[in-house]
Structure prediction request, 588 residues.
Amino acid sequence: MHGERIRQARELSGFTQTELFQRSGVGQSAIAQIESNAYVPSDPVLEAIALQTGFDIGFLKQEKPPAEFPIGSFLYRSQAKVSPKEKAKTHRMAQLMFEIVLAMRPKLKEIPVLIPRTSESPEVAAQIARTSLGFSPESQIPNLLGAIERAGVLVLKLPIEIEGLDGFSSWVGINNDIPIICLLAGKKGYRQRFTLGEELCHLIKHSPLRCTVVEADDEAHRFVGELLLPEEVIRAEISQPITISSLWPQRARYGVSLQFLLHRVLDLGLITANQYKYLMVQISSRGWRKEEPGDAEIPQEQPRMFPKMVEIVYGNPIDWQQLKRDTGGVPTPLLKTLLGKISFDDPGSDHKVLSFQKRVA
Amino acid sequence: MTQKYLLPLPQDLPDFQSALTDLERVPDILYRGLEYAAYKTSSYRDAEFPKKWLDACLSAAIFRANAIEFLRKEGIDAGPDGPKWLFNRLPFLGISFYYNRLHLRILKGPSGTLPGCGISRRRKKFYNQLPSNYLIGNAPMRTKANLIVLWDFDSAYALAQLWLALPANGGSRPQDVSVYWCDPLVHPAEKTAPPPLPTTKDDGMDELVRPRKQVTKDEDMGQSGAR
Prediction:
């Protein structure tokens, strides 16, 4: 067996070592030793762990370690706001979904990756990205997620909600040749499009990271600005005077939040810092800072590539038994939770979204 | 301050919803124009008296001057509603216009409270719903109701909520005024319908994700040849 599998099962179940000790009766230090391959547990110990985590003994006994899944941009996503437990669970979930992809891969035709890797400035990188996604410099991008998938990026929607963490990305696979963007559930409005843009920047420009985390975040912001709101178009189309009401119709047109639009017109020098501050105060006083009007009704783009892969390999409805076998014994309820958001009919699935409670500051 | 509400509404006067229907896109234009005017007032304050409060009369005058400028150049006057509306010239930068046989005045009033009429007989007549006659081109028109749009600054000289009111009786002081109704005007942003669903059909995914066995021999050879 491989200790990393025990750790994977524990973290996916959302337990710390101490919590698993309290539930299973297996000593915390023993769990630590098992996970670091310093101690081979007996069957009764494994059974106790299996009972609490819901994983089959077969899964825990696998010799093969979990697929390597670099932490990628997770490293610098709102670190302060996300607890290690939340972070571990999210990472493990993405890793497990990637293992499902790996299990399906031999049965599927290879998907070409069309996104570039460049060290150009964020603005130039965004222009290159627009071209590789198949958009002209002045066109709007109606379905960003679809375009990113068609460029060979695997987009996974994780059934987990964490306040302060919208998504992360990484180049994965043996040769680090598969770009993946993971999106977390429960985001409203145009936030998901912004996250997609940011993660696309990290894949294109920051793998490997050659600047500080703060610089990378700033570059990602500039990249998304140019990707979704190209300078030339915005200068031509946004007319003075800029007020909340005059800017509002552009929000739906370009699929960005009002606050991001304001930030962009500030970056382009179309408003002064004073005017920006004044407009942001208005947004705050109207209570639109966290959620803008209509955000809840804005439909979210859904990934299509992963569901399509599952449909081809495991059928419609899904052959859960086969999928469980191929993944080494991942519990069916967990598989159903992971695949629960996929769009084709499956009356047997009990769709669940795992939610972490908001932390009190 | 609470103002008296008079009920029932006389049959010949519009309720809030029918007034909104008659006003068509005017409330949205007013939001745009008055937001612009509030911004210009704030800019003046920042440039001339940073971090200080302006005299209330001065700030209101700057606001009204800019609102008139906007409404005449970029608002109702500039739109396709020319034949329907008429902008008044009032003393002390008062803003008043006719639209669809409604007579509107734009007045400063905190949180939906109508100001008093003071000694103005003209304003009292307006509050008392006396109809007035006007000309659109050569066509004589008679108003069917007098409406008031109330505005105010918030603490940052930004435009606060706009209200639409149908006055009933004018009095010198605010507490002597009564209204038939006074309701907030929804900001244009808050009534925008959400955009349509992004299309997911024909997204090329059927072509992109295919089982390996379906790949033709030619394609396989082509791929390996390219490598």
Observations:
- Chain A is about 50% helix and 5% strand.
- Chain A touches chain B at residues 106-111, 142-143, 145-146, 149-150, 241, 243-246, 248-249, 252, 255, 258, 274-275, 278, 281-282, 285-286, 288, 292-294, 297-299, 301-302, 304-305, 308-309, 312-313, 343 (CB under 8 Å).
- Residues 341-361 of chain A have pLDDT under 50 and may be disordered.
